[in-house]
Amino acid sequence: MDLILSGGTLIDGTGRPPVRADIGIEGDRIRAIAPRLDGPAAERLDAAGRVVAPGFIDLHSHSDLCMTLPLQRQAVLLEGRIRQGITTELLGNCGIGCVPVTPATRPLAAGVCGFITPDGIEWTWGSMASYLDLLAARGAALNVATLVAHGPARFLAMGGRAGRPTADEQRVMDGEVRRAVEEGAFGVSFGLIYPPGQFADTGELVSVARAAASAGGFAAFHQRGSSRDTLAPAVREIIEVGLRSDGPVHHSHVETVGPRAWAGSGEVLQIHDEGGRRGADVSGDVIPYTAVCTTMLALYPPWSLDGGVTAFLDRLRDPRQRSRMKDEVASASAVWPPWEEPGRWTMNIARECGWERIRLAHVDGAANKRWEQLTLLELGRRRGLDPFDALSDLLLEENGVATQLIFGISGDDRVDEPLLPLLASPRLAVVSDAWEIGKGFPHPGAYGAFPRVLGHYVRDRRLLPLEEAVRKMTSLPARRLGLRDRGEVREGFAADLVVFDPATVAARADYGRPRQFAAGIDDVIINGRRVVAGGTFRPAAAGRILKRGA
Description:
Helix content is 33%, strand content 18%. With 550 residues, it is α/β, with parallel strands linked by helices. Among the domains are: 54-290 and 410-446, TIM Barrel, CATH 3.20.20.140; 303-407, no CATH class. Strands 1, 2, 3, 4, 5, 18, 19, 20 and 21 form a nine-stranded mixed sheet that branches. Strands 9-10-11-12-13-17 form a six-stranded parallel sheet, sandwiched between helices. The chain has a three-stranded parallel sheet with strand order 6-7-8, with helices on both faces. Helix 7 runs parallel beside helix 8 (265-277), helix 12 crosses helix 13 (387-397) and helix 15 packs antiparallel against helix 16 (466-473).
């Protein structure tokens, strides 16, 4: 053996109770599991008093552009993720992605991706195949899988305009998605509160999801609305797409937005169950926080984003159109279905959560760095403006690139009861929905999502058993992806492992100090290589580029 982990408590990822076991690794595979392994080994790791579990699989990452960086820079940005036990992550979520692109559509995709883009990125790829080849050539610090995002495929078919695609445009869109899945993507993602996904009606979603399913992929959804007005119909739309497309569907980061919607958590789970009884192959995931991070563009009316970020900024400079935006942000409610009339809202985040619950997380411009961490209510006070005008001026100064932290998602800093049934649901995997691009204040989930569950919700709150929490981080997401050799500690499986102390594992990152590494996780093994060894990070090209069906 190259490495034997001895004396640990094995939680194998299936949900079965813990057992005492030694684990032997040869190359990149688990070769032996036994109560005791006494044979020779190049290296031994004493895991007594600690849990040995499969490496965590994050189904919802936005590290798409970080992965295109050379390994040294990539590893710096991914260290917090690896140190919390993540060994595999899924890119291309929320319909926001950097592939497929052409020289003509690259500016549209780059504009939408601005809030997840580190400095120094050169867009040198086009197809999914060329993107995955680039990742493989650069080397990956952890295992990488990806979805193809609906947004860039729609840009290729019809530019940034709103409205329904023509029959020819739909064929182009479907063809791009099918080709990307054939080239290795695990499915397609939709971001139905972001441009251009917010302009798609259910029929378009069904057609695209069917194209992905025809090549063996699933469809993941940032649902169209999570406030009280559209929560239930938006979840039912996901089920409808699954039934009509005859393909698997995945409900990303299940949430209820704003206090009016918090009571809806149970209804969402009931709709999932009803969908399963009707024959839908439905799964989902949840983040273990009551705040989320996203682009500031999500606060604006859908019509204002027609044509992309450049067109939006032009409208923001027009006093008449800006005044219309301001009035709608103050008063508009979401109406279902939103595509029946131009300009209908999918969700008015500022109205549901309030300016006081929305915080500026990151801007690029040095002059505006001083405003990071302020709520938009406070930003307005500091700049002597209404919050909407203060934000709009800032977006013009920042060329549309700014990130927000939204509080009030399935609870807030005082109340997390609406989140608890989602975290406890056996159907929902644990995810981070967080990223680190080296700027501003990232969501603390980029450094602590998985240990937060293990420490706060398992050990301290006793919300669910440890073996069930591990299952929701490992074999559950592996099954959604169709990974046949990851997600469990089993002989012959890939040697992706995390070793943690159940008595001390904890997230140390918070909103004020988000770049704090997790506690209680001293060893992380990716494809047989100890990339975290005794608490020391040893970055290496240990990851693999995973392709659907490979």
